[in-house]
Amino acid sequence: MSTHFSDDVDCGTVDDDRQKASSLICDREFFVNAILTACVVVGAASSGMAMGYPAILLPQLKSNNSTLYTDDEMGSWIASIISASMPIGSVISGILVDKIGRKLTLHAQPSLVILGCLLIAFAHNHAMILVGRLICGMASGWGMVACQVYVGEVSTPKARGILSSTPFVSYALGILLVYALGSLEWRVVAGLSTITSIISVLMYFLCRESHVWLIRQGKIREATIACIWFRGNKIKEAHKEIEEIITRYKNEKIVINNWKCVFEPYSLKPLVITTIFNLLQTLSGVYVVVFYASDLIGEMGIGNLEISEMFAAILTAVVRLAFSIVACLLLHRINRRSLALLSGLSTAVTALTLGICLHFQINSYFMPICLLVYVAANTIGLLILPGVMIGELFPARVRGITGGLSYTLLNIFMFGVAKLYPWIKGTLKIYGLFCLFGVSALLLCVLVYFTLPETRNKTLGDVEDYFKADGIFWSTKKEKKVLEAIDSSRKVADTSI
């Protein structure tokens, strides 16, 4: 569907709405960002709880007094089916965010979580548990894509890094929260898991639709009022942003089928970069530690050091949460490329160190410390950057579709690694597994160094223009040339207004 603007479109036509917007939207930008952050945190926590739920569910189902006894085969499906169903939610979300809007798509996600959790809570057979887990997985994929697209569009360049990484903090928080409820009966925990989703439904009523999406639907007045709200009642700044978005949209070539745009170079280049990044990130062991923390710790022999495997697993979750928060702060302070390289190199060094120590059967307290450093290293960059890239790298016209594709592929990689973990561990042994993690992290650093553009403090329009230039390899010279061209075009536009 194409939307047409008349040539005399000017945001000045909505001057009559300024007074109305000022009276309705009296809070400053910080408060608006706080609302957005709270919505993201509460909404994403349910995904973390769903991921961590098998850790308390399976031991209870496998116990001798269980009313629904579960063997290892069924238990593996209960644990992994959430990863298999996430891509389904990602694809659906990627389409809906462009069709019905970012906010409405986000608003529908908690309802899926509630349905999935209630099915599990009232399950009287394994089929109901599997369906409930499948729905929760769809909801997780659904929410991640919609959240990253929404946050990427409504936040300022300075705040975008923190807001884009917040879901991963909430994800880690959700894992810890469900662990804390582990002493309760599994049906009760499933029921309590709906609370965060209910709160999320209510909180989304406080937010507005993305002004970028509204403009693409031709709803200029609604977009302007929304942008004024997102910018903390800074009317001049909001009007300038609206004008730039309208100018960019009017200059785009109208294409009936947005899927055709996916195969344009400016869409394909970021999609290729994010896909390879996601594959190498998954192979570096980021999610293996989440799914198989206790098993990994047992294989490493840490249990022989009078440290219980469950306690060590909880420590990895605590470290993941703490360094997710650190990552949010770092995204606000340092460049994306620097953070990715720091995280990748640190992950590679610690993983290779663990591989060497395990090969020579070095068993000391250095091992659990090194494992915690490994978790911290991959959390500060490798874990959070795929979500940030969805919100920052893809062009607005196909951001929903390409974001959905990117997240779908990430979850396919995640599911594949999770299911193949026993075979890989049996083939390479535990020391070879960590060496694989380290080599993958090194290759990821090579990818980042040569291809990933710097997006910190850049507008989404600047990033889109960068990918429209020739070539895919990052270089300071190229960036300077592209940005000079962008500045030049802006000056021409300003003089013509």
From TrEMBL:
Coiled coil: none annotated. Its main location: membrane. Keywords: Membrane, Transmembrane, Transmembrane helix. PANTHER family: PTHR48021, RH09188P (PTHR48021:SF7). One of its GO terms (cellular component) is membrane. Residues 36-456 form the Major facilitator superfamily (MFS) profile domain. InterPro entries: MFS_dom, MFS_sugar_transport-like, MFS_trans_sf, MFS_Trehalose_Transporter, Sugar_transporter_CS. It holds the Pfam family Sugar_tr. This is Major facilitator superfamily (MFS) profile domain-containing protein. It is a multi-pass membrane protein. PROSITE patterns: MFS, SUGAR_TRANSPORT_1, SUGAR_TRANSPORT_2. It comes from Pyrocoelia pectoralis. GO terms for molecular function: transmembrane transporter activity. It is found in: Membrane. It comes from the Eukaryota. The chain crosses the membrane at residues 30-56, 76-97, 104-124, 130-151, 163-182, 188-207, 270-290, 310-332, 339-359, 365-385, 430-452.
